[in-house]
Design goal:
The strands form three sheets. Strands 6-5-4-7-8-13-10 form a seven-stranded mixed β-sheet, with helices on both faces. It has a four-stranded antiparallel β-sheet with strand order 1-2-3-9, with no helix packed on it. By secondary structure, it is α/β, with parallel strands linked by helices. The model has no long low-confidence stretch (mean pLDDT about 85). The chain has a single domain, classed as Vaccinia Virus protein VP39 (Rossmann fold). Bound molecules: zinc ion. Zinc ion (ZN) binds next to loops.
Length: about 280
């Protein structure tokens, strides 16, 4: 078995629902050796993934405002690095994140393996999201920014996808990634019960260093990065606070539908520039 990033040898460290999870001997990448191809990607991210709960989303559309806000938040982070230009959002779903970038002055398109989601982006959000995967789609243009927000864990061939992103960027174009950190404290404490170990929808688990090392190897330089905030609803926050601190009535004053940020210990983001 070989690492899908660097090609070094790898060995199984544990199994989840009979799926062998392996560690690279060289680059610290962890992965499930997905045997599926692009067609299977469409099946994994079927309509049930976005509405069925479990490893996917309980109701993706209800996270609309939060995702738009996340797009705006990243656009703001990038404002100190570049001017808005042409963006390709990978794994765009129904285009909410992309809308956040568009609100901040970017223009561009998305790509999404789920056809219903891509259609919804066009009909309800008014954005052009093409059905397909980054690895297989044909583009007539180059981009100033490629965003992969909570996407790279799903890539069946991450090395190929990152190389493709490099090809599709203009010189000095940016690659923005947000993903889960397999070296985080939560991942270490929970071990194989960490919530992100859910093959076959999630098949790659990166460390910030391993990802940067690989991207540097194929022609990117890291410009900035950190830990994004996760957003939870007031109702969810109130129940967490009651659980931790006791059933105090003051927690009932938190509006149910208010979205509250809290720092995510097991997520990281980073932006890389294509070296010309
Ligand atoms: Zn490796």
């Amino acid at each position: 078995m070989f690492c899908p990033l660097c090609g070094s040898s790898a060995k199984t460290v544990f199994t989840i629902k009979q799926a062998p999870i392996a560690d690279c001997s060289e680059c610290s990448h962890r992965f499930y050796k997905a045997t599926h191809c692009a067609n299977t990607v469409t099946q994994i991210f079927d309509d049930n993934y976005f509405t069925g709960g479990g490893a996917g989303y309980s109701d993706y559309a209800s996270e609309k405002e939060m995702l738009i806000e996340r797009g705006r938040m990243y656009a703001k982070k990038l404002a100190g690095i570049t001017h808005p230009g042409r963006i390709l959002d990978v794994g765009a779903a129904c285009g909410f994140l992309l809308k956040g970038f568009v609100d901040a002055g970017w223009n561009g398109i998305g790509i999404e393996p789920n056809r219903s989601m891509a259609a919804m982006a066009r009909s309800e959000v008014g954005l052009n999201v093409l059905p397909g995967t980054l690895e297989n789609a044909q583009f007539e243009e180059r981009f100033d920014l490629i965003s992969m927000i909570q996407v790279v864990g799903h890539l069946f061939d991450p090395a190929m996808a990152f190389r493709r992103a490099h090809d599709l960027l203009n010189d000095e174009g940016l690659l923005l990634i947000e993903t889960w950190d397999r070296t985080s404290i939560s991942a270490r404490i929970f071990g194989k019960r960490w919530h992100e170990y859910s093959p076959p929808s999630v098949v790659q688990w990166f460390s910030a260093k391993g990802l940067s090392d690989f991207l540097s190897h194929i022609g990117f330089e890291r410009l900035a990065g950190g830990r994004p905030a996760k957003w939870i609803s007031g109702g969810h926050a109130a129940s967490l606070l009651k659980y931790k601190l006791g059933n105090k009535r003051i927690f009932d004053l938190i509006p149910e539908d208010m979205m509250i940020p809290y720092p995510a210990e097991d997520l990281f983001w980073a932006v890389y520039r294509k070296r010309s």
